[in-house]
Amino acid sequence: MPGFDYKFLEKPKRRFQCPLCNKALRDPVQVSTCGHRFCDTCLQEFLSEGVFKCPEDQLPLDYAKIYPDPELEQQILCLLIRCIHSEEGCRWSGQMKQLQSHFSTCAFNVIPCPNRCPIKLTRRDLPDHLQYDCPKRHLRCEFCGSEFTGEAYENHQGICPQESVYCENKCGARMMRRLLTQHSLSDCPKRTQPCKYCSKEFVFDTIQSHQYHCPRFPVQCPNQCGAPNIAREDLGTHMKDSCGSALVLCPFKDSGCKHRCPKVGLSRHVDESMKVHLSMMCSLVSRQRLEILDLRREVEELSVSHDGVLIWKIADYSRKLQEAKTRNNFEFFSPPFYTHKYGYKLQVSTFLNGNGSGEGTHLSIYIRVLPGEYDNLLEWPFSYKVTFSLLDQSDPSLSKPQHITETFNPDPTWKNFQKPPSTRNSLDESMLGFGYPKFVSHEEIKKRNYIRDNSVFLKASIEIPQKIIA
Fold first, then answer.
1. Do 181 and 167 touch, CB atoms closer than 8 A?
2. What is the pTM of this model?
3. Where are the zinc fingers (TRAF-type) (predicted)?
4. Between 231 and 387, where is the model more confident?
């Protein structure tokens, strides 16, 4: 072992230091031939390498000339040093030979637990360890008086049957742990208990109030029909479907019958009032028919155009033309449209096989005024310019469309442009509007793309001054 590596109060003199390890000599030996001194261990390690020369002067060495130096050793052991635990806080200092005896009392020296637990700790930490942490310490339970080692005591804590504890349900009661189970099962006001009707669990002191609302709690029928033990949640179904004493309305109540009677007597009422009910149903059907007509008219009003332009697609043109040829003066009618919001209501009609002077050779087109919602707010007669167009369906990117167009100003003296009667059915659909019997010939309509995908498009537009629209 090399020399002493302690913290000396004064640096050791050179003659006290080993030339090989540069530390204070431990077990010093002297070479008698040259007088040099070394630590016994240092010199042995040096010579074990096969060099038998003094490390200081390189003179030959002889094992027989190396002797211990007890006098020097005593001088070294009297040197003053600090405790090896000085950096940890120990303030002891004294002669080197007193260090081992100091360790027996040094508060910072690490020692094993006297209870033979595997822990090693400083002497100053030993009392707390023995009292609180040592798994081999001996303790007595303050509640039951039994003795345990530290580890067993920790396991015993929290399960001691004699320990006084509070009820886990937080009812406020305190008792020995061995009585807690019985208390929780039968005495605790905060214990949970299932409702015997719905099986849901409730705190014991609230279960009584729960029964006032429990859906499965048995109740009596308010009609006193005698049905036993009806669950509260089934009462409504019972009174609606099963209770013979419940007052019910006549099934013809929506027709106007206001009769009410117990359910058991309803069949008799229906049988006795059959004629009355039939009359009520007939009246209801009549009212509903009028309501449907009103709703249909309102839907039609919402679906019509309100910008003074009608684009009317006549699909399946060839079939309809053939039908017009077989039926004399067969007229097709467009959906109605308005000239503007709150304006005149108009309708276009056409004779695909012609009418009057154009019959058999031309397509005829006419326009007429229909009774509208806002006629009482408008100026009469109708006097705004009307333009008819047969639209060319050619691709605009390939050639400029060439629509066939006719325009006229209504004659204010003509009957059809006067204010129409307000009665809905007073307009004679057989009465022609104003237009062109020879609008476009059958030969002309076959040119270009006036007919495309067996459909034609007719357009009617009304020129309304901006001040009227505003």
1. no
2. 0.43
3. 101-154, 156-208, 209-263
4. 387
